[in-house]
Amino acid sequence: MKRIRIYVVLGMTLLLSVSNGWAVETEILSFLPRNGGDRSIHLVNTGGQLLETPRLIVGPGRIGTFSWSPDGRSVTYGSNQDGDPNIYVADVRTNTQRQLTFDGNRDIWPAWSPNGKWIAFISDRVGEMAIYRMDADGENLMRLTNQGHCSRPIWSPDSQRIAFTSNRRDKNSLYVMTAEGRGVRYLAETSFIGCTWSPNGKEIAFIAAGDILGSVALFSINVDRKKQRQLTQLYKELTIISQPTWSPSGKWIAYTLTELPIDLLGQGLIPVAEFFAKSAICLANTTDGRGGKPLEATRGLVSGSGLEWVPEGFLSVSPSAEKLMTLWGELKQIDE
After folding, report:
1. What is the tens place of the pLDDT at every residue in 8-57?
2. Per-residue pLDDT tens for 38-51?
3. CB 184 within 8 A of CB 200
4. Residues near 320 by beta carbon (within 8 Å), at least 6 away in sequence
5. Cα dihedral value 168, 173, 174, 177, nearest 10
6. Buried (b) or exposed (e) across 68-86, using 16+ Cβ within 10 A?
7. How far is CA 287 from the centre of its chain?
8. What pLDDT score does 323 carry?
9. Which contacts of 109-112 are long-range, i.e. CB under 8 A and separated by 24 or more positions?
10. Which residue in 10, 13, 262, 293 has the fewest CB atoms around it within 10 Å?
């Protein structure tokens, strides 16, 4: 049998904070670090504190975006550990992983449906980046889009609709469709890939150009009425905002803020390490409609992919006595 390794480190810090009620009061973000040699998923709370434990370490291979299962017990992610980018699922409880796609093409950007039944992802197996859906165990593959280059699918809270961006109108635009790929509707133009549903399913947040030349901001649009509102300040010129994700409470939208080097035009291509050297995770408070507070502890740590809110189920695990020794700092290695 093929040997696959996954490492999980769970620490006392998280367990104590859960028992003291901290996990209930504070929402947690998970992200992939900028360092290509570090494949662990990092955690930060909305107060800007980095949590050293736990870390889920997946590999080998370069990890792309990831998505938690609704119960927080598993995570799906893209990895090139076998040469071609494929979709995998890691089980946090058993420290094992499974490969779900094997077609030999680019299978990337997985997204787990809130009902736990499906994983949607992007693949170029037919020559263009289309959206596919499969069961959580990798069975019953279904192609959902057949027009234009599409980006990462984002599920609605009820798992009945999928939002995505595509260039099917010759401009990058935001669309929504059913979970079966029917009823595709245009919503708005966007500046960068990435969008996020509000927890109540009524709005989708996305990135678009502002009213000043070269500026961008985070906006939201009412899915049914198409009424837009601006959620953040306008970011001008050499600034990129990306990966918006709405918190489960509805209070926050997190996103990545990247400040490009000033001499961008003179450099041409920018090394990845330099591109994200000043990046940080920001929080926009959706209750006042504006803002964007950088979490300074994440400055220079975030990468260009992978920013997700941690499900409550993952943080509320109550280990039994016989498991405490394993969870409090022991590094486990499982070979399959």
Report:
1. 333 323 333 333 333 334 689 999 887 655 667 888 999 899 986 555 66
2. 667 888 999 899 98
3. no
4. none
5. -10
6. bbbebbbbbbbbebeeebb
7. 22
8. 35
9. 109/64, 109/65, 109/78, 109/151, 109/152, 109/153, 110/65, 110/66, 110/67, 110/76, 110/77, 110/78, 111/67, 111/152, 111/153, 111/154, 111/155, 112/67, 112/68, 112/69, 112/70, 112/76, 112/136, 112/155
10. 262
Instruction: With cut-offs at 50, 70 and 90, classify the pLDDT of residue 2.
Output: very low
Long-range contacts for 264-269 (Cβ within 8 Å, ≥24 apart)? 264/238
What does the block give as tokens for 43?
């955690």
Give CA separation, 88 vs 29, 78, 105, 136, 245, in Å: 21, 6, 14, 10, 22
- Residue identified by tokens 């079966």 is 180
pLDDT given at position 309: 95
d(CA 316, CA 294): 27
Hey, which residues does 118 pair with through a beta bridge? 135
- Count Cβ atoms below 10 Å from residue 143 Cβ, excluding itself: 13
Between residues 29 and 7, the one the model is more confident about: 29
Give the separation between CA 155 and CA 168, rounded to whole angstroms.
Answer: 20
Backbone angles phi, psi at 218, to 5 degrees: -90, 125
Q: Which CATH architecture has domain 5-335?
A: 6 Propeller (2.120)
Strand bridging mode 173-178 / 332-335:
unpaired
Segment among 8-12, 241-245, 258-262 with least mean pLDDT: 8-12
**Residue the block writes with tokens 């901290």:** 22
Residue type at position 139: E
Measured CA angle at 242 (ends 142, 161), to 5 deg: 30
Query: Tokens 């093929």 correspond to what residue?
Result: 2
What residues does each domain of the chain span?
A: 5-335
Q: Tell me which amino acid residue 69 is.
A: S
Ranked by mean pLDDT, which of 17-31, 135-149, 265-279, 283-297 comes out on top? 135-149
